[in-house]
Amino acid sequence: MLLLAAYLLAWRKVRGAWLPFITMLPLLVAVHFLGAAGFDFAAARGLGGIVEPELSAALAQRPGHYNIHTFLSLWCAIGALTVGMIGGFWLEASSVFEED
Question: Which pTM value belongs to this model?
Fold first, then answer.
């Protein structure tokens, strides 16, 4: 939907149409990493009604591997959120959306 809006704005020749897309992309990546970390955390502990016997067996055999994967997913999400927030503040402060 966001990509479609950016195409529409670019087609209408709106200046800076791709900048909101570039700002939102890291935030969407952060949501992906948060979802992966939450799913792994819940699956490892049997929370939330997640019933996947193969995943539970794999988590039981190598708990350290999946713990570090969850930890790195969380830090990737934090990094992507930071990049998205900095990009958003930069976009707001830039002269792209200033009134001429």
Answer: 0.67
